[in-house]
């Protein structure tokens, strides 16, 4: 059977049979057919390609607690990253588009387990108002005051520039009206507009 499947130069060799000795000799690169003909075979030497997806080190999603209990948080900061509402938002907290919980106001983060209602046993995250004497709250308010002062200075400078522009525009309007009046007077006197005799 093997003799009928072997090929030489792209052609099949029909007929013939192989013995055990011929198979053993074929392992060395040659076969002996029934008619005494020696057939040389060439075995492949390159290993076939295998599927290999080189994923490497995949970066984690970074889910979980970002700000712990009794810690200070500023508005907009993420408190708990999640997929699905494993933790529920309470007062002072909001839910993002990816179900993560963030702070709506500045304050202290509180984690508490619900004891009433349909969602008993679920953890709820709230943001309580921080006392005025809290060091981070004082620093946060100081920064807000600095930003407000900078915005006020910018507003005053912009108002001054607007006043200056209005003065310049009024002056230019007055000059245009004056020049137009002089031109009309010159035309009324019969002079040519733009000549030296007109502007004297």
From TrEMBL:
The name this protein goes by in its record: 50S ribosomal protein L27, chloroplastic
User: In its UniProt record, which GO terms are filed under biological process?
Assistant: translation
Which residues lie in coiled coils?
A: none
Query: Pfam families this protein is in?
Result: Ribosomal_L27
The UniProt entry, under SUPFAM superfamilies, shows: Ribosomal L27 protein-like
Extract the InterPro entries matched here. Answer: Ribosomal_bL27 (IPR001684)
Q: Which domain of life is it from?
A: Eukaryota
Q: Which PANTHER family does the entry link to? A: LARGE RIBOSOMAL SUBUNIT PROTEIN BL27M, RIBOSOMAL PROTEIN L27
Keywords in alphabetical order, please. Ribonucleoprotein, Ribosomal protein
Q: Which organism is it from?
A: Rhodosorus marinus
Which first-to-last residue range defines the signal peptide? none
